[in-house]
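okkk here we go again. third time trying to get the flavin-adenine dinucleotide bound version out, last two times i messed up the smiles copy paste (missing a bracket lol). double checked this time i swear
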Amino acid sequence: MNILVYINTASNLAKSALEAVTYASKIGGSVSVVATGNADDTTLATLGEYGAQKVMIDRSASADDAQQVTRLVAKATEAVNADVVIFSHDLIAKAVAPRLSVRLKAGYISGAVAVPDMSNGFSCKVNVFSGKAFAQVAVNSAKKIISLLPNSIQPEKAGAACAVEAFDGAVGSAAIKVVDTKKPEGEIPLPEAELVVSAGRGMKGPENWGIVEDLAKALGAATACSRPVADIGWRPHHEHVGQTGVAIRPNLYIAAGISGAIQHLAGVNGSKVIVVINTDAEAPFFKAADYGVVGDVFDVLPKLTAAVKKFHAAQ
Amino acid sequence: MRTELLTFATVKSVENMKILVCISKSPDTTSKIAFTDGNKQFDENGVQYIVNPYDEWYALVRGLELKETLGGNLTIITVGTAADEAVIRKALAIGADDAVRVDADAKDAYFTAMQIAEYAKTNAFDLILTGKETINYNGSQVGGMIAEALDLPFVSLATKLDITGTTARMEREIVGGLQVVEANLPLVVSCAKGMAEQRIPNMRGIMAARTKPLQVVAATAVEDLTTYVEYGLPAAKSAVKMIDPNNMDELVELLHNEAKVI
Ligand SMILES: Cc1cc2nc3c(=O)[nH]c(=O)nc-3n(C[C@H](O)[C@H](O)[C@H](O)COP(=O)(O)OP(=O)(O)OC[C@H]3O[C@@H](n4cnc5c(N)ncnc54)[C@H](O)[C@@H]3O)c2cc1C
Ligand SMILES: Nc1ncnc2c1ncn2[C@@H]1O[C@H](COP(=O)(O)O)[C@@H](O)[C@H]1O
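finally!!
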């Protein structure tokens, strides 16, 4: 089986890229990577340690233009005669993988959370109903496309550095022009975060978020919020998690002053461990929690932050 | 390099803006999720269907706002069975001009997208809007597939959309930030939160929706590239462990030694 992994790179490699290559090598067969972005050859070669046999990079293609990336990945698919194409289920994949599916007439499994089951055909586990259930999706076509939900598997080192070659994807012109990019400094992007501190209406007002941010900083966590909090403008929209917001599956999700409505749970119940802090012992969130604290956020959060700092200092 | 001629063409196209909004149904967000037939079918017993929130709140409402300011026509399209017509009428009540139903049980994103692309091919639209994803299958697939089938640019997960002349300007959230992009019409855009505010249909809209045209077209033969073989529910959580609010050291210790997440 020939497997092709698409990744976009900055100067370094994202953890999601390492996950995708690890995932591909777990399927078994020969793994090639096709990349965009500006990582240098030495950096790209380290993908070999996660199972890649070679990396092909086209630094002329814009990852912001789904048509260019689609042309590139389609050409690379042909070049290595790939049976399966793997993406990380991020913004780029959400634009490119569906296009590639049509172009190659390859069935696409979106948001896979496990390695494919090939015992009887080819199928893969995904989350459905916004995380309230899962499904096993089979691909009926000869070629297959999978996008892997971030944080579903951990990167694993196995081999040694691999070859890196320039690849001309014949990407053509870009139809999408990037006019401006606004990037807040130093924030941890929510979908990739392993630790998340989230807060809801129980915080009473945006001026009180300092204690949430303090805990996040002490843990090295990203911050998130419930939908009403984003709707009233206490927090930016991109922090809104849940059924109609971002779906996340961090290792640790701390929910402070959030009731745990079903639509909120839908976006976070893939988290490995959930801690709930709420004054109301009857709050529905406790049913979905691993650890619960019945208490006032204004009292508990600073205490937890202090305890985390003490723990880190002792490590 | 914008000549007067180009500007003229621009203005002309805006006056005739043709917008297609893809509408799917989804179970009400409070629905109990269960399966029947040996976990092979979604149990529709007692399930109330709604217009998929992303399609209704963001794609449809933004489409209507653009139509209202720029003039033109807004058609909604659904690949679905006669049972979906209640949901289609709701979208008409909110303000769409007319509706198309491709008569098929949509089970596969590729099948669905090919049906919509087929319809769009014979009805040149300036703008095709979809929701970010359906909240039952969460594939985020159909929009990109339509775009590829029609060879059009596709901007995914846009949180803002404005049109000037034949240029669309959009914002989209990228990892940890925001990007402003431009593309020329015709274009396919998938719509996420921020694009518009939910509109509640009024009585007049509901009455008007009853008589708005709903055209049913036959599906074209396309094979399903994927099949949902089986469903399951996540394993039940073990009981929550309660921690004394005055003993956060214990919580940190448990997160480190027991849960091993910090
Ligand atoms: C179609 C649809 C989609 C939706 N999608 C989403 C979604 O994606 N994400 C989402 O989050 N919601 C979503 N919702 C909204 C959801 O139903 C809830 O209304 C929302 O999650 C509640 O937010 P909250 O928990 O912050 O506020 P509340 O429900 O008001 O809860 C506040 C909680 O804080 C506790 N509290 C108060 N004071 C303190 C204190 N001092 N210390 C500790 N605890 C305190 C209270 O006991 C309470 O449990 C959706 C709703 C619908 C209808
Ligand atoms: N059966 C359908 N009929 C019309 N539009 C659909 C259908 N299914 C999905 N869509 C559109 O495609 C978007 C993405 O759906 P999905 O790929 O299923 O997440 C939805 O938000 C709708 O706008």
